[in-house]
Design brief:
The protein is mainly β. The chain has one domain: Calycin beta-barrel core domain (Lipocalin). It is about 10% helix and about 60% strand. The chain has a ten-stranded antiparallel beta barrel.
Length: about 180
C-alpha cells in the first residue's frame, strides 16, 4: 500500500510540473495582440515529432485572415513534406478580457485561449488523421510573440494523459499584398 501511495504521489508531482499559468508571462514584451499579428498574411514552418523525438513530418502553412464582426477568421493551408495538403479555417472569438474561444472543423468542441504579456495558451481536442485512422488528441498549445513579426508555437499532443507527440511552429508575418 505504501508503494502504491508513493507511486501515486510521484505521478501527481510529475504531471503537475507542466502546469504553467499563462499569467506568469504578464510582464513579458512585446505584448501579443492576435488581431494585430494576423492583420497581414502569415507564413509558418513546422515539424511534428513523435514522443521519441523523431521528426515524422515537416510542413509549411500559409495563413490569410479577415475580420467577420467580432470574430477573427484564420484560413490555414498546409503543405506537408510527404506532399499531402490540409485546409483548416479557425473562427476565433473574444471571450472576455485576454480570453478567446476558437472553432475549426477538426476541433472537438471549442478551443479555449488566454493571453498574458507575450504569450497565449490554448487547450483543445483535435481529430488527428493518421494513415487510415483518426484519433482524438488533446492539444496543449503555447505561442510566444518574439517581435512584431515573429511568433513561436510549441504544442504537446496527448491521448489519455500520455504525450504522443509535439508540434513546433515558427510564424512570420509577410508584407501585405
Amino acid at each position: 500500500m505504501k508503494r502504491l501511495l508513493a507511486l501515486l504521489a510521484l505521478v501527481l508531482s510529475v504531471s503537475s510540473c507542466g502546469n504553467v499559468d499563462v499569467g506568469r508571462y504578464a510582464d513579458q514584451q512585446p505584448t501579443l495582440n492576435l488581431e494585430h499579428f494576423f492583420s497581414k498574411p502569415v507564413k509558418a514552418w513546422g515539424i511534428f515529432q513523435k514522443r521519441s523525438g523523431e521528426v515524422t513530418k515537416r510542413f509549411e502553412v500559409n495563413i490569410e485572415s479577415r475580420r467577420q464582426g467580432n470574430d477573427l477568421i484564420l484560413d490555414e493551408r498546409f503543405l506537408y513534406s510527404d506532399g499531402t495538403r490540409q485546409h483548416r479555417v479557425w473562427t476565433l472569438t473574444p471571450d472576455g478580457p485576454n480570453k478567446w474561444r476558437g472553432r475549426a472543423g477538426d476541433v472537438v468542441g471549442e478551443a479555449k485561449g488566454e493571453i498574458a504579456g507575450n504569450a497565449i495558451h490554448w487547450l483543445y481536442r483535435l481529430n488527428l488523421p493518421v494513415d487510415d485512422s483518426t484519433y482524438e488528441v488533446t492539444m496543449d498549445d503555447w505561442m510566444y510573440l518574439m517581435d512584431e513579426d515573429t511568433l513561436i508555437n510549441r504544442t504537446s499532443m496527448s491521448k489519455f494523459g500520455v504525450e504522443v507527440g509535439q508540434v513546433t511552429l515558427f510564424f512570420r508575418r509577410q508584407a501585405a499584398p
